[in-house]
Amino acid sequence: MPRVAGVRDGLPVLEDGRTLDVANVIWCTGFRQDFSWIDLPICDEKRAPKHRRGIVADEPGLYFVGLKFQYAVSSDVITGVGRDAEYVAKHIAAREASTPVKARAEAVA
Q1: Three-state SS for 46?
Q2: What span, in angstroms and rounded, lies between the C-alpha atoms of 98 and 37?
Q3: Considering only CA atoms, which of 99, 16, 29, 32 is closest in space to residue 61?
Q4: In this structure, are residues 58 and 42 in contact, taking their beta carbons and an 8 Å threshold?
């Protein structure tokens, strides 16, 4: 997939111009943690995302993986990111399972 280059109607737009119809966004931060691109009120006074283990409570559907000290000192390295990614994935799956089928169908329509 091409990189996400923007947002249109609340949905990610790829560099090739396609818009993705998604319910969740997991931002994997990589080596440089720059959150200036986020135009949501989710950052603290130091411009770091307010989250609990990668889950942004104020913006359901927005998640992070790879943050420094997301859960442990190893959260931003290969040996620790898997544990944090699993935690986020389980949260998303549980959230999806608790959403009534009618609400999911309306969201897609």
Answers
A1: coil
A2: 31
A3: 99
A4: yes
Q: Is residue 4 classed as helix, strand or coil in its secondary structure? A: strand
CB-based contact 49:40 (threshold 8 Å): no
CA atoms of 17 and 67, how far apart (whole Å): 28
Give the list of residues 6+ apart from residue 67 with CB closer than 8 angstroms, or none.
29, 33, 49, 51, 54, 75, 76
Contacts of 13 (CB under 8 A, 6+ apart): 4, 5, 6, 7, 19, 20
Per-residue pLDDT of the chain (109 residues; tens, 9 = 90+): 788 888 888 888 999 999 999 888 888 876 677 887 788 899 999 888 999 999 999 998 999 999 989 999 999 888 889 999 999 999 999 987 776 654 544 554 4
Burial of 30 from C-beta contacts in 10 A (0-12 / 13-18 / 19+): exposed
In this prediction the pTM is 0.75
